[in-house]
Amino acid sequence: xxxxxxxxxxxxxxxxxxxxxxxxxxxxxxxxxxxxxxxxxxxxxxxxxxxxxxxxxxxxxxxxxxxxxxxxxxxxxxxxxxxxxxxxxxxxxxxxxxxxxxxxxxxxxxxxxxxxxxxxxxxxxxxxxxxxxxxxxxxxxxxxxxxxxxxxxxxxxxxxxxxxxxxxxxxxxxxxxxxxxxxxxxxxxxxxxxxxxxxxxxxxxxxxxxxxxxxxxxxxxxxxxxxxxxxxxxxxxxxxxxxxxxxxxxxxxxxxxxxxxxxxxxxxxxxxxxxxxxxxxxxxxxxxxxxxxxxxxxxxxxxxxxxxxxxxxxxxxxxxxxxxxxxxxx
Length: 330
Ligand SMILES: Nc1ncnc2c1ncn2[C@@H]1O[C@H](COP(=O)(O)OP(=O)(O)OP(=O)(O)O)[C@@H](O)[C@H]1O
Description:
This protein is of the alpha/beta class and 330 residues long. It is 35% helix and 29% strand. The chain has 2 domains: 47-71 and 88-248, Rossmann fold (3-Layer(aba) Sandwich), CATH 3.40.50.300; 253-329, ACT-like. Chain A, domain 2 (Alpha-Beta Plaits, 2-Layer Sandwich). A 6-stranded mixed beta sheet has the order 6-7-8-3-9-10, sandwiched between helices. Strands 2-1-4-5 form a 4-stranded antiparallel beta sheet. Strand 7, helix 7 (191-208) and strand 8 (211-215) form a beta-alpha-beta unit. The longest helix is centred in the middle third of the chain and has 18 residues, at 191-208. Adenosine-5'-triphosphate is lined by residues 11, 35, 37, 55, 57-63.
């Protein structure tokens, strides 16, 4: 359904000024270094999947989303959506794809400030050619799902930033695109609103069969929502189901975090050469011990802990965040 084939984007280097002589000479003279954003990126997204694009700042996530919307032209390679080139054949897909740029609210002045939420949504539904009655049904559904029903008659201007973001996120329920691109959709949201949005995204995938590409810096979000993820930094680094990537990572490296509650004092020296890092906090008669260890040292640590009066021990398993930080560091 979506296929990225050797997708590559180099942005032109910045031009300081063409009015001072030195900059003009530089511009005409030496070859200037282009800015790489994507390099030979290959992957496929299946129909109905939630696919995560994960990368550090500057990895190329937004560039990818812009190519999907024909806002940026790739230097080479192609991005196919439903078999059509996203840039050269954009006309064929433009009614089928919708993008939310979460980090850049109201990017295209989509919403009218001094107009109610409902009127704004109705206007956009009309733009997308959705019949009136159907639009009303979809708007009711979206406002209910996103817990915005009491904001229906409120001016868009009067909403908090998080509420505006939710109004933005109501649009996929109204437009019902085949492909939805969510570029950091929960970036400014509090934990409760974020969960509401997660549910909405899952519902889009489950009940509407929408194919979703999601970019996020919240790796818990990626782990919760995505069927598969691509970890990249301009170039591909890894691809797979979050669970599989975590299992692979655990088998390969497995840096564990043990949280131990001990009655009495603990000697840090006991863990020297075994733990990568030891943190100790004392509170009343209890010691809270945080140990970062390699999988292979678990037995040894347990042997040492047997000498203490251990009240509680928690073994924190690896997460997608561990995989991500490890892979990006390499
Ligand atoms: N219009 C532009 N002109 C020049 N360089 C650009 C332009 N847009 C992006 N870049 C560069 O391309 C690279 C990728 O940027 P992009 O915004 O796609 O990354 P990102 O993964 O979305 O980052 P973030 O997580 O910080 O939003 C960066 O080095 C960035 O500076």
